[in-house]
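Inputs:
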Amino acid sequence: MWNYDRKLQYPVNIKHPDAKAAKIIISQYGGPDGELAASLRYLSQRYSVPYRDVAGLLTDIGTEELAHMEMISAIVFQLTKDLSIEEIKEQGFDSFFVDHTTGIYPASAAGVPFTASYFQSKGDIITDLHEDMAAEQKARTTYDNIIMLIDDPDILDPIKFLREREIVHFQRFGEALERTKDRLNCRNFYAINPEFPSNK
Amino acid sequence: MNEKKQLLLDIQIIAFVVKDVQLFLDTHPTCEGALEYFKYYNNLLTALTSEYEDKFGPLTVYGVNSNDGWTWIAEPWPWEKEA
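Outputs:
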């Protein structure tokens, strides 16, 4: 189970509304390499893992991703609060507004709704950890691209924090992969699925 | 920055320290330095959280003192814009 903490993991205090920036940043909520996909990926993969340390890491990072999803949502919410209909039109937010007003909806910057096909839960921890490391790098690249597209320091501050977390998570997943490989049977040198009973 | 905002920021910083070393310990569970580090900052987080909840209201539902009414929904939510 989970409990709610009445705080963001890192502060979000946006002073200037900017619907154009919001439309870009929402991709890290519901886009292909966003925080929602990250959280669901790790929290889905953890159940069948035969190693408690790796299951713990997936639980703990999957939980942190929920906090990142909340930060992205808070950024988008604050960027689109109190806009006039003229500003919504001028800043290109009308295509989102028509379906969601200024509600927070998980979609990519191009407007593609969130889908579970953005991630896998393969039932093979070696395969899954490789996907997880790739996912952290893809999210880091997306944050790099956001940093190139945005100038407002109020937006960049929490975005840079989130970018750094992708790097730390990549490191931890790499360590989990090493710990997993260390435990394989010495005859399993092709690293065949250690989750399936016949391959233990 | 007023006392409430400063204390919440301190809690955010220390909670982040605890979260980061939590992930580190998942892959380095016998690292004595990390275990000591976790103990120190986790105790500090508990103390700061109690101080905040006594003065300014709950951070988790377990921090609600219902003698004061349903304080869980009394304060702004974390995503709200500062006035």
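Remarks. The CA atoms of residues 24 and 33 of chain B lie 11 Å apart. Chain B has two helices and no strands.
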